Amino acid sequence: MTKFYLCLFLWIILFFFSCSNERKSKKNENLLPNPTLSENLIIDCQYTFNEAIAGSNAPKEILNQLELITVKYYSIDKKIHQGQILTNKKIAHEIIHLFEFMFQQRFPIAQAIPVVKYNWNDNLSMQANNTYSFCYRNISYSKHARGMAIDINPFFNPLRWKKGYENRKNKPIGATYNSHTPGTFNSSHLVVLEFKKLGYRWGGNFTRNNDDHHFEK
Predict the structure, then answer these.
(1) Which of 99, 161, 165, 198 has a 20 to 30 A CA-CA distance from 41?
(2) Main-chain dihedrals φ then ψ at residue 43, nearest 5 degrees
(3) Mean of pLDDT over the chain
(4) Cα(203)–Cα(200) distance, rounded to whole angstroms?
(5) Using one digit for the tens of pLDDT, what is the confidence trace for 136-176?
(6) Minimal CA–CA distance to 91: which of 51, 143, 154, 161?
(7) Residue 109: CB partners within 8 Å, gap ≥ 6?
(8) How far apart (Å, rounded) are the C-alpha atoms in residues 174 and 199?
(9) CA angle, 75 as apex, 69 and 80 as ends, to 5°?
(10) Who's near 194: CB < 8 A, 6+ residues apart?
(11) What is the pTM of this model?
């Protein structure tokens, strides 16, 4: 009889440890990254900071103000993409928040790639419907020269000159505004309102043109 109880006692101990290990295994499974998201994530660019600023011709004083951030967004293919924004350190945390907000709203971003890809040619970047912040040029008029502005889906939201300025060319060339196209802005759009809430000036309210893709601080 003693032998029976001893065997029963050993069986209970083995059963307890077996269940305990199984519970630990299931708990660890919950700590693993979501395989569906990681497998479906499309990487649009993976620059280092030095690669992202290469050839910009910006002085060191301005380069020291910049930060390269990683952002996630739904693109026009309805898939999740990962890109990068080279922007000013002063607004980097706000840009991260705004991308998170656009992601939650499922607002489509065509792509977000530093302009170094386009050899610092703003026109080529806009033509590619590229979302970006820093692009060095005349700092007297451009907030992009210090990374204090961001252009979002410029081909969907082209710069259109108002009456009296018809001699100037709309940008990018060949782009037309259609408010029904996903990824476009209007004055009551939730993304526009979120930018304004954070103190950004929207280009759609400019006096001489409608620069709907442009937000600056």
Answers:
(1) 198
(2) -90, 115
(3) 87
(4) 10
(5) 988 888 999 999 999 999 999 999 998 888 788 889 999 99
(6) 143
(7) 73, 74, 75, 81, 83, 99, 102, 131, 152, 153, 183
(8) 31
(9) 70
(10) 98, 101
(11) 0.81
